[in-house]
Amino acid sequence: MNALWLTLASLAAILVLIGLRVPIGVALGAVAFAGFWHLRNLTVALGVIRETPFVFAANWDLSAIPMFLLMGAIANNSGISASLFRAARVWFSGLPGGLAVATNIASAGFAAACGSSIAAAAAMARLAVPEMLKHGYDKALAAGVVASAGTLAALIPPSILFVLYGIFAEVSVVKLLIAGVIPGLLTAAIYTIMIVARCSFDPSLAPRVSRAERDSLREQRRGAIKEVWPLLLLILGIIGGLYAGVITPTEAGAGGASLAAVIGIAQRKLTLPKFIDALTDAMITTAQIFFIGMGAVMYTKFLALAGISPLFTELVGGWAFSPVLLVVAVSIIYLILGMFLDPLGILLITIPVFVPMFAALKLDLVWLGVLVVKYVEIGMLTPPVGFNVFVVKNAVGDSIPLETIFRGCFWFLGCEILIMTLLITFPAISLWLPNTMK
Q: Collapsing DSSP states into helix, strand and coil, what is residue 422?
């Protein structure tokens, strides 16, 4: 069996195992084990399984992941997400669709203290959806903005997906994190414009607040800023430190977790039980990510042994005159996979396949990283398996039907068409900021 058919067979086997509810890490590891046994022998296969978990876990760059997760868990458990939403509500409620805009802005802020789309969507679903429904907002809009804005956590640093992509694609993690800043802010801005435009043309989607309530909220602005300014300073410090090169991603995560804890304690919102809950949440999620990562490393080694990199270099040689075809093909594949598979699994399965292809055409791998993470996050909104949609559904219960949440996301997916067109057409949107780093 040649390298191409062996790769296709292995991918098919992984998809079948995942379809049978086998955990992604187990599916990747099992297929890799069978591949090594087929290409070499049982001793080699067992050796890979024995060696890979230690080598993977000992990678210092991966230490940024538990630190980012801990920072997000502390921020969530200490009520920082609630403070962000209250502040955004005070400042933006006067706009058409003001509560939806506030949810979008608060999600962008929480993204810079979280790193996980699912965590961001879950936190905002509990806070923002009941508030919007109480004010008579359209259910699809209320749920859709929470699910969609949660994806900003994958772009705005700290981002766990960027860390994993950087390690597996052997690209600077710091440059990837900085590359996500402008696309993340662009996404939030386009979402905001769409919400305001929709609610201006159709006021029934989001009833405007009364003049008396608007005046009352205006008076609360100073207090709202006072409550969240430490977090805003923390966010700017992390991004600025990464950009200036004075801190590593691990140091940014560790410092951010420590400062988030200090803020929570100073504001008397972080108690010992909540801190223990934050530690538990971070450890459980870290273990899940690392388990998948170990399986992905074994699968990557198997593909290398099968000779897939030279094969793809040869296959794409005829496409060198039009790399746009490769970008379009990869885009379609990611959109299809995103309808069915876990985001982390998609990322780790596809990196060893697509990165050599882009490298062969001398396309920027940082730019590819931004596109890949965006497509993975779009997949969290698309039916039938939109993970952020199910997270919101779990949080709101029976008050909003699942199909209504998906319907609410379609407007934001329309925005993503524009965003992805801009990111593909103008790579400088992603690359300008990291290229200015020293």
A: helix
Does residue 9 form part of some domain? no
Q: Which H or E run contains 216?
A: helix 211-219
Residue-level pLDDT at 145 = 93
Check: CB of residue 191 under 8 Å from CB of residue 415.
Answer: yes
Q: Is there a domain that residue 322 lies in? A: yes
* Other beta carbons less than 10 A from residue 431's beta carbon: 18
Other beta carbons within 10 angstroms of residue 417's beta carbon come to: 10
Which phi and psi angles does 250 have, rounded to 5°? Answer: -65, -45
pLDDT 10s digits, 191-241 = 999 999 999 998 888 887 666 666 666 666 666 677 777 777 777 778 888
Full DSSP string of 50-88:
HHHHHHHHT-GGGGHHHHHHHHHHHHHHTTHHHHHHHHH
Q: Residue 392 and residue 126: Cα distance in Å, rounded?
A: 8
Going by C-alpha positions, the residue among 70, 373, 119 that lies closest to residue 250 is 70
Whether the Cβ atoms of residue 143 and residue 104 lie closer than 8 Å to each other: no
Among residues 15, 9, 39, 44, the alpha carbon closest in space to that of 27 is found at 15
pTM of the predicted model as reported, rounded to 2 decimal places: 0.82
Q: Cβ(24)–Cβ(342) under 8 Å? A: yes
When divided into structural domains, the chain yields a total of 1
What is the rounded distance in angstroms from the CA atom of residue 161 to the CA atom of residue 182? 16
Please check whether residue 53 lies inside any domain of the structure.
no
CA-based radius of gyration for the chain: 22
- Which among 69, 428, 384, 434 has a CA at the least distance from the CA of 242? 434
In angstroms, how far apart are the furthest CA atoms of the chain?
76
Give a yes or no: residue 350 inside a domain. yes
CA-to-CA separations, 351 to 119, 165, 296, 366, in angstroms, rounded: 24, 7, 10, 13
Positive or negative torsion for Cα 327, 329, 330, 332: positive
> In terms of Cα–Cα distance, which of 342, 14, 293 is closest to 164?
293
The residues of the chain scoring below 50 in pLDDT are none
Q: Residue ranges of the alpha helices (H) in 267-401?
A: 272-306, 308-315, 323-338, 343-360, 365-378, 387-396
Domain range holding 236?
Answer: 60-435
Query: Could you report the per-residue pLDDT of 121-152, keeping only the tens digit for each?
Result: 887 888 888 888 888 889 999 999 999 998 88
Q: Quote the CA–CA distance of 49 and 69 in Å, as a whole number.
A: 27
